[in-house]
Amino acid sequence: MALRSIYRGLKKNNLLSPLCNSCSHLHSHSTSFGYKEVREEEKSQMVGNVFTSVASSYDLMNDLMSGGLHRLWKERLVSKLNPFPGMKHLDVAGGTGFGDDKSLVWVEGDAEALKFEDGSMDGYTIAFGIRNVTHIEKALAEAHRVLKRGGRFLCLELSHVELPIFKDLYDYYSFSVIPALGELVAGDRESYQYLVESVRRFPSQEKFAKMIAEAGFDKVEYENLVGGVVAIILG
């Protein structure tokens, strides 16, 4: 698992400008929902409908689709966060997260407009969630805003496979097996079709790292897991 350091001097060397072209669609009046183009105001409701539909079988499907590896990926994410006593941490897109720890506070909100003060958090994590937001750059800006100086940003996300032969196998599995498995287990083929399409529409690891740097983060790097099926991106 190679750890790649990305663009520590991007701003200084003015290497971020190509990002503007690749992300210009984010500022239009339409956005992607998988391979479909939908109006911006419709996407959040459509994503909400997806997760409402699959909620009861969400954890089971994650186990089946990843062979249980998603649990190890999340453990890897937490190990990189290196939590400490008294840490004030924000986990966004918690989904079906659960727990009765009294130190946990559950809040329903919008990743693009967080209800927390500037510089109030020591850490920010988001796992398998940021590709579902309407404006990725707004969610990143909000993450930067709420973090204290020196705070950590960590994102775990389904990403892009780089090895050609493995990519062909992964594409077959994604488009032929996952939607069929969703129909069989969750009774919902379309939501899992959206899942695999949304992964293909999400920026590559390097492009997403550039977006994080553009949001104001320093020392941005990423680590591919399982050949790029998922990646951990840090800032």
From TrEMBL:
Amino acids binding S-adenosyl-L-methionine: 96, 110-111
Recorded metabolic or biological pathway in which this protein acts: Cofactor biosynthesis; ubiquinone biosynthesis
Membrane topology reported for the UniProt record: Peripheral membrane protein
EC number(s) reported in the record: 2.1.1.201
Predominant location category: mitochondrion
Database matches in SUPFAM superfamilies: S-adenosyl-L-methionine-dependent methyltransferases
Keyword Transport attributed: no
Reactions catalysed according to its record: a 2-methoxy-6-(all-trans-polyprenyl)benzene-1,4-diol + S-adenosyl-L-methionine = a 5-methoxy-2-methyl-3-(all-trans-polyprenyl)benzene-1,4-diol + S-adenosyl-L-homocysteine + H(+)
One Pfam family, short name: Ubie_methyltran
Keyword hit for Cytoplasm: no
HAMAP family, alphabetized: MenG_UbiE_methyltr (MF_01813)
Name of the molecule in the record: 2-methoxy-6-polyprenyl-1,4-benzoquinol methylase, mitochondrial
Source organism per UniProt: Rehmannia glutinosa
Gene that this sequence comes from: COQ5
